[in-house]
């Protein structure tokens, strides 16, 4: 039935072919090969409580019998146990929540179900799946920002399966709970799909939106069962419990079948050193690797030539377009017309276009696809012959999610992780045990963050006055924060509870990053090119900054912070710009610490002030500094959570570090530490900041700070503190095992250093970390 132009090559042979191409270097780009064995599927009978109509609907869709994990999760939910199902891609998580939910709707013609997904596209996919089942009287409907006003009323009154997202719950459904009273009273299940995406500050906000939802259902007399679906993640029960505020049972054993996968770790070769004879730069340029994008484009080309259906995951939209176009070019050079069998795929495409691309790939009409992780969520595309992952996607959870697109039952497939030139990727391709031998990281969120909890209490109070019992629902710090809000005049305390005193509703953005994103506007045409988040705007959009957008170069004329607009004009100067900033940090309090003799490890609150003070212009070719220009931007303040360690000067000297090298050693350790933090916490290196100093006024010792880049913290520093040995050991290994002499982007250099990566002392950073690790043993 399938008319796939199928590959003649198994994964081993394909890998051999891909490898053979690499003639640039004598060193093999493959640093490790892991064999992931095939798994047999295990089915379970339909649970005896399954309604015959529901079972028939699934059977008609080709589901003759559920997998064990589906039946187990569905039965727990049926019994009223809050449950999270955390299994791999394409393991059929939907059935596990559809079965109890649809059963409840079949048994009770008035019952309702609320489904939450992180994206509109996923909700739309779910809606189609529900409609295909063709069950009567359910009237499933999506309710999101695009739903026309006239349809909203109909949905409230008639739909029994409403598919929406946390933003809509927050902005519309909860504030208007009166109109949803009937729906809420009959609510039996709340389904939270792809719940691992609710992490960091956004996740903390969603946690409180769910508490507000629980308060609203209790008010209308229902107590729905929560069913969550997650990618494979560490401690899914704990994360789901933090998210919902309820005890949650996890089902984690995947009983769906999958084909064997050969998983290769791939490090692009070093480029031959450039001719440095005419360089005026006294410092030696570090060696540079071939870019991961080019490498991925070549691998995609070769694998299409070999007739293999291949999906390449690229982190940025632009990167996906670049890889697709490079591959098309080389394919057309090899065989005219072959380039047509490769396409790009990213978020922002229309659903019809996405469907057409998915169909073309499944039918074999398309052989190669370069995609962003837009494809990661909820798209029914699996069973490919090869998956290329360009750059570590940030978490092992995402890595497995992406690699899981490869492999059909009974067939072998290939997955390749192509490393980018940065500390984490480099570490991973040389430490396969960190990829294959480690549990997937836990999803980190912190509902106790006062900067999240305060605004959320205001939202809750504006929906209905807060009672003492409500405060308990929002967690332990809620009482103190409510008192503070009263003191500020935001809430008013009356005998019956806390009241919202203002007319309008509180303005709270769930995805808030501490300020409005700055719009980048072309002055001549008024065209909006895009936005840059508030946090990065000073460094990226200062007057004079060179700003790249879709491969076109612009120069910033003016940054208006009041209106959050940067005006730019198109220009291609012969230089790049690099902002320099000054960061100061003071310790507010210490929450917890470890006293290890000459070494101290701390977790606490800090105040960080940061000012972008100047920028360097550097030649495009060669990178030499043309000049440094001053800037007049305001100081920004951030109260957040930090982890820090101190080492006494005698201990550093005893480790063989000259006092004059303290700053470079600590700075290098700080950079690598930030680079490796995503190994243990689900964050991005851009979510965190750092500061190192040979003598800090508050600690009175050489100190390295790493802090959450969000007001009030996001849980990352806390996670670093809790797993400090593991984190710092990996940091030490990353630096020590890098083949460079004096530091490179793979180990201690950072793309976001506000100090121009100066000073840095790579060998002494290893000594600092050895001293810390020995003391912490
Ligand atoms: Zn290096
Ligand atoms: Zn730095």
What does this structure look like?
The protein is an alpha/beta fold. It contains 25 helices and 27 strands. Helix 9 packs parallel to helix 17. The longest helix is centred in the N-terminal third of the chain and has 20 residues, at 200-219. It starts with 10 loop residues before the first helix and ends with a helix. Mean pLDDT is 88; it is low at 1-8. The structure holds zinc ion (ZN) (2 copies). Residues 738, 740, 743-744, 746-747 line the site of one zinc ion (ZN).
Number of separate helices: 25
Could you tell me how far the N terminus lies from the C terminus, measured between alpha carbons in angstroms? Answer: 60 Å
Structural Rg: 27 Å
Instruction: Report the sheet-strand fraction.
Output: 15-25%
Tell me, briefly, the overall form.
globular
- Strand pairing plus helix content: what structural class? alpha/beta
**Biggest sheet statistics:** 7 strands, mixed
> Care to count the β-strands?
27
Mean pLDDT: 88
Strand order of the largest sheet: 1-9-14-13-10-12-11
- Helix coverage percent of residues? 25-40%
Bound ligands: zinc ion
* Unreliable residue runs: 1-8
Condensed summary:
By secondary structure, the chain is α/β, with parallel strands linked by helices.
Features:
single chain, 777 residues, alpha/beta, seven-stranded mixed beta sheet, seven-stranded parallel beta sheet, 25 helices, 27 strands, disordered N terminus, binds zinc ion
Summarize the helices and strands and which ones pair or pack.
Elements lengths: L10 H11 L8 E7 L15 H9 L7 H11 L4 E4 L6 H15 L4 E5 L3 H14 L7 E2 L6 H10 L2 E4 L1 H8 L7 H5 L1 E6 L7 H20 L5 E6 L5 H9 L4 E3 L9 E6 L25 H14 L4 E5 L2 H18 L7 E4 L5 H13 L4 E4 L14 E5 L5 H8 L9 E6 L4 H8 L1 H5 L13 H14 L4 H6 L4 H10 L3 E4 L2 E4 L17 E5 L5 E5 L1 H8 L4 E4 L2 E9 L4 E6 L4 E22 L2 E21 L5 E6 L5 E12 L1 H6 L7 H15 L11 E6 L9 E6 L7 H7 L1 H13 L25 H15 L1
Parallel strand pairs: 2-7, 2-8, 3-5, 3-6, 4-5, 6-7, 9-14, 10-12, 10-13, 11-12, 13-14, 17-21
Antiparallel strand pairs: 1-9, 15-16, 17-18, 19-20, 20-21, 22-23, 23-24, 23-25, 25-27, 26-27
Helix pairs in contact: 3-4, 7-9, 9-17, 11-12, 15-24, 17-19, 22-24, 22-25, 24-25
The chain binds zinc ion (2 copies).
